[in-house]
Amino acid sequence: MHDGAGHRIGAEHRMRGVRTVEHFFTVPLVHADPSRGTIEVFAREYTSPEHDSVRDLPWLLFLQGGPGGRGNRVTSLSGWMKEAARHFRILMLDQRGTGLSSPVNRQTLPARGDATAQAEYLTHFRADSIVADAELIRRALGSGPWTVFGQSYGGFCTLSYLSFAPEGLREALLTGGLAPLAGHPDRVYKATFQRVEARNAEYFERYPQDRAVVNRIARHLADVPEHLPTGERLSVRRFQMAGSFLGGNTRFDALHYLLEDAFTATPEGPRLSDGFLEQLGQLAGRASNPLYALMHESIYAQHEASDWSAWRVLESYPQFLPEAGDLLLTGEMVYPWYFEEDPALVPLRATAGLLAAKQDWPALYDLDRLAANRVPAAAAVYRDDIYVDRDLSLETAARVANLQVWETADFHHDGISDDGEAIFRRLLAMVRNGSGASRQPA
């Protein structure tokens, strides 16, 4: 393990009731072998000006969802951050490869060499490396054991933190982020397809008129060339990615607003509107987070290849195929054809194939250490979460000592965007005084 991280403080800003400070850290690319070179990791500190001095406040590290998503950029304290800022200095991390942290994309990866070299480079961008970065950053900031709050993939990283560096944690909070600790990624996608199908049924029950709209769009795309703002033809299967809306409370109904903008009348007949294509392009494109597509299945892989798990499991769920009749929208699955249709991913196709075939992924969790965990931890498990399965989450919870579970049917995967203030307050109370644990709907 490397002894320390270079640390540079950047600009400080004040805006709408929030103080921000930029932090830049130099960390090894490979923590076990610092001779392999370094990368830069960026984080932004958020504090409330209500505190005369923040030096006495403890640190809270936020690990966002993904993989491949940068830390949240906010201009005011609201939701969970408003509540957290009462107690903490919040450090919003751009996990390695995202945001300002030595970003990974089609523009930067060629500097690493050919597809083989790029794939090897990316093997150092999983949760184990993110945790090692966090520990160097914690020490560079002069912090004692800190609080970690992990949302979705950030919760997966938090489980790795509890496995490999629990001495760095005062307490751990997780929302929608209890990853399966063992087993092939196929387990995840079998559960995901089932929950996404149920969520489709729920959506079309609420908006029955949209059943015809979705089918009409699918027929139209099969017959009429429509192009996204990035220039490529929109396929039916790419349109299905609009199902990402189904994963949340706050976004579920927004799908209806997307669909109502779908068609516009033209002299040549009905066409998909520019507004619809612009919105869909933002959903179906990975230019802003290519690591999501490159690394998504690897976050479940330990000692075996993912081998395009979601694509293979899809064979058992033919109702999701475009030709299956009433079109179903999909969730977070990543398929190999993404790297044929998305201009931001096309140059990375060979690299993605090598990552999917990699068999010697190291372990992401220490099961013995988790079974003996002494760090107070609390997790929100969303009963109908289509991205992080409830049953697999509870299986994991049973294997982590000192972890309290609050299971609720009131929220979906984006719970902290819905009522983050209350969720954060409840989880913090659970780790501080043991209150709030429940396996019943809230």
TrEMBL record:
Keyword Hydrolase: yes
Lineage: Bacteria, Bacillati, Actinomycetota, Actinomycetes, Micrococcales
Family the entry assigns: Belongs to the peptidase S33 family.
Protein name per UniProt: Alpha/beta hydrolase
Keywords carried by this UniProt record: Hydrolase
One Pfam family from the record: Abhydrolase_1
AB hydrolase-1 domain: residues covered: 58-213
GO molecular function terms attached to this record: hydrolase activity
InterPro entries, per database record: AB_hydrolase_1, AB_hydrolase_fold, Peptidase_S33, Serine_prot/Carboxylest_S33
